[in-house]
Amino acid sequence: MEMKDNMKKKLKLKVSAIKDGTVIDHIPAKSLFKVISILGLDQIENQITFGTNLDSAKLGGKAIIKVTGKFFEDNEINKIALIAPHAKLNIIRDYEVVEKKIVETPEKIRGIVKCFNPKCITNNETITTCFKVISDEPIALKCRYCEKITTEDQIRMV
Ligand code: CTP
Ligand code: ZN
Hints:
The chain is mainly beta. The protein has helices spanning about 5-10, 30-40, 75; strands at about 20-30, 50-55, 60-70, 90-95, 95-100, 110, 130-135, 140-145, 150. The strands form two sheets. Strands 2-3-1-4-5 form a five-stranded antiparallel beta sheet, with helices on one face. A four-stranded antiparallel beta sheet has the order 6-7-8-9, with no helix packed on it.
């Protein structure tokens, strides 16, 4: 028997719809808590709901975060490019998706990741790391201080 459309929608909506705010969808499940921390969602007072290990053909387990009353700046959102490059943002106003945005890898990354080189000054003194993104798929970051390259599989968060 054909499933009615509203039934399909309900099955899809495992985390309640929100009235106004931002839905960050298509986050790899393993990166959920890193995204929460990078966006500082553990520090804000807004209502937040999330779901993880939801079915996704593409990601094999995805996570979704819904933040009520929060509309991010592009530069804030782009910080998650390193760990959730295929995340999609949905801007919700009065229950409707009014805009969809994709994450873009920034040209420079300040903080967030550690330099791979143990001898780098950023690993030995309290200096914020800074990298130039020299490739985005796969990610390669060139350290501003020691000029060594940190590749995707070497990335560790600060
Ligand atoms: N959403 C929400 N609250 C609303 C409207 C939408 O939480 N008031 C969520 C939906 O649950 C979905 C996302 O926002 O996770 C995008 O909504 P929509 O564009 O309707 O879904 P899809 O067509 O499945 O989007 P896409 O294929 O781009 O992921
Ligand atoms: Zn370095």
